[in-house]
Structures are given as C-alpha cells and as structure tokens.
Amino acid sequence: MQTISHPTQDEIKIAANALKNGHLVSFPTETVYGLGADASNEKAVSRIYLAKGRPKNHPVIVHISSINKMEYWAKDIPKYAKILGSAYWPGPMTLILKRNALALDFITGDQESVGLRVPNQQVALLLTREFEKIGGFGIAAPSANRFGSISPTTAQAVEEELGKYLGSQDLILDDGQCEIGVESSIIDCTQMNPVVLRPGAITKEMVENVTGLTVSLRENESEIRAPGLLASHYAPKAKVILGLAAKPGDGFLAMDQIPTPIGSIRLASPVSIEDYARDLYKALRMADQFGLNNIYVVEPEGPGLAIAIRDRLDKASAGN
Ligand code: TXA
Ligand code: MG
Fold first, then answer.
1. Does residue 57 contact residue 230 with C-beta atoms inside 8 Å?
2. What ligand 1 atom has the least distance to the C-alpha of 31?
3. Average pLDDT of 276-296?
4. What does the pLDDT read at residue 144?
5. Measuring CA to CA, which residue among 96, 95, 98, 106 is closest to residue 41?
6. Can you give the pLDDT at residue 222?
7. Which of 41, 133, 143, 184 is spaced 20 to 30 A from 233 at the CA atom?
C-alpha cells in the first residue's frame, strides 16, 4: 500500500488505472475517506469487504462524476430525485434508487435498490472523471474503516484502520482533513416521498425546500439494511457516555462554551456545529490513542448538522 499526498492530475490518473486493474484506492471526500473499488468488478468489490471485515449483505454506495451518470445505475428515477441531484450534487448526499442492470447483487447487498453519490471534493471528483474516461462506470466506496469503527477523516486514520489489510498495489490518496467530517445524508428515493435514512449535512428541511414534498426521517426499525443502523456503530474502543459527569482521567467532548470537568481530558472544543462535525471522529480517535476508558460527550443542540452529530453519538454510546 502506498500513500500519495496531494495527488497531481497525473497521479490521479494512475489511481484511476489502479482501480480499473482491480486494486483498491482510498480517497478523500468532503464527508469522510472512502475505500474505493471498480463497482463493476466483483472481485475488487469483495476485497473491500475483506479489508473492512464487513458482512457480505451490506450494500455499498457507488460514486459517480455527475448527475448525468445516474441512469447507468438506476432506473424509474422519480422527478424529485432528479431535483435533489441537481440541487445538491456534487455534495454530501446519497440517493437510494431502484437499481438498473449495472447494479449487481454484490453492490446492492441483494437488494433491488442502489445508493449513488457525486462527491464534492476535488480529488474524488477528478478520480471519478478519470475512471470514467478509461471505461469505468462508478467507484464503489464505503467509509475506509473497519466494520463498526469510526469513519476516517484523514489519510493517516485510513492507514491506521486499514493499512495492514491493504495489498502492495493498493493506494491511499491523501488530500488532508475532510471538510464536513460526518458521512453523507442518505435519502431513500424509492417511495412516493423522500425518506431520510441517515441524517447528514443535507438536512430534511433542505430536501423539503427543493422538492416541495413532505419528508420523513426513517423509523428506528427500518428494514433497509444499512450498517449505520446497527447499535454500537461509529464507536471507538473507549466507552462513549452522554453527559457531563467526566471524572479525572476521562475524555471530554463538548462545545467550547461548556467548561472542562476538573481533571478530565478535553478532546475538542468546537465553536460551531460545523466545527463539531469536523472534529468529532478525530476526537474519538484521539481518546483511543491516549488509551482512555471513558469519553463523556455533551451532544450539540439544535437542527441541521447537529441532528447528524447526535445520530452518530447516540450510536457510539448505544448500550453505555
Ligand atoms: O459520506 C459517505 O456516504 C461515505 C463517503 C465515502 O462517500 N460513504 C459511506 O459509506 O459512508 P458506508 O458504506 O460506510 O455507508 C453507506 C451506507 C451504509 O449504511 C449502506 O448500508 C447504505 O449506505 N446503503 C448503500 N446502498 C444502499 C441501498 N441500496 N439501500 C439502503 N442503504 C444503502
Ligand atoms: Mg461506514
């Protein structure tokens, strides 16, 4: 495995060729780093599952270069899904659509739907374009972490998570810290009205505003298989506990204006919700590096991205 820092256009072409030859390429997006493979190559995609330690029946998102490539992967696309794509792509939004012939079972986890996203990050966009230029149709990429663990927001975190599971020809493209820091919003577009399956930076209100439709948040007991829906997902090794009761030696994460409990170890002091999202996984990772047993977290209040942060923290703390 080789890491390429701030890849040039030529290096991105090399990475696109590596994908075409069946190798894995981890790349940055505006949300988190992905672990990419040629979405039309079953063997390459199966290596993603091995590297992540992920169960076979979980679907992966296909990354494409523009809304014009949707039809390769999806059919019977509702008008509102096209409106969403036009409004928010490239961006932190994944649309779940009825699958087309290219979306085989090894991509969809045997489901009749496929997840598509156009990422808004320069290296990611160039990679999808270069890959399509040499005959590729899309890049399958889940977050580049071991199954159940925290998504990586830096290339270094990808190396720590997956370094020993990648082969000598696989690549990591390093383009610094991810801008948003939590995974894309997932919008189910297989029903009459959009349903938010995973909250993210594209909020329910933003979906309602452009579509004019009533949008619901997924029920807890969704039948759609999405790993993020499992309890104890997005979790560090340290125990995540919601609240202020940190004791000396515990980790602590809260908005800047909330004081650090005496003796606890401040992991981040975000001054805005955007900062909180960007710092979240880095802070949880840091706690593991320090070998902490407990992390006390005060969740951010309010709508928008704060809902996504609370969603991830509720899952990280499930059962604690
Ligand atoms: O921000 C993101 O979405 C990142 C970057 C790399 O794009 N990717 C990401 O992928 O978070 P992953 O695999 O870690 O999470 C994608 C979620 C999973 O929960 C998966 O089950 C769900 O999307 N998903 C993918 N295809 C689906 C489908 N056809 N139906 C329902 N859920 C689907
Ligand atoms: Mg993930």
1. no
2. 1
3. 97
4. 98
5. 106
6. 43
7. 41
